[in-house]
Structures are given as C-alpha cells and as structure tokens.
Amino acid sequence: MDTGLARVDGKLGVLVERGQHTEQRLSAAETAAAALATRVTALERRVWTASGVAAALGAGGGILVALLNG
C-alpha cells in the first residue's frame, strides 16, 4: 500500500512540475506576443505614414507637371 501511495505521490509531483513549467512557458509566450504586437503597430504606423507621404509627393509632382506643361 505504501509503495502504491509513493508512486501516486511521485506522479502527482511530476504533474505539478509540468504544470508549473507550462505556466512559465505560457507567460513567456504572452510577453513575447505583446512585444510583437507593439512592434507590428509601430511598423503599421510607419507604413501608413510613408504611403501618405508618397501619395502627397505623387500628387504634387502631377500638379507641377501640369503647371509646367500648361
């Protein structure tokens, strides 16, 4: 009986350790995901700014060409 209880106790200890390890990995993954989301947001902001600048330059160039040829 004692041997069986010791085995069950040992297996429960392994399960608790695995659970703690899984919690640590999940926490690290959540932190990494939050950091990645921040980086993506910053990148999106830069892309939209660059495309706005490109559109404004294109429109300005078109107006300049129209004025010079007009």
Major beta sheet summary: none
Please give the count of helices: 1
Work out the strand percent.
under 5%
Q: Structural class per helix/strand content?
A: mainly alpha
Description of the structure:
This protein is an all-alpha fold and 70 residues long. Helix content is 97%, strand content 0%. The protein has one helix at 2-69. It is rod-shaped, with a radius of gyration of 30 Å. The mean pLDDT is 93.
Short synopsis of the structure:
The chain has 70 residues and is an all-alpha fold. 97% of the residues lie in helices and 0% in strands.
List the helices and strands and how they pair.
Blueprint: H1 2-69
Overview features:
mainly alpha; 70 residues
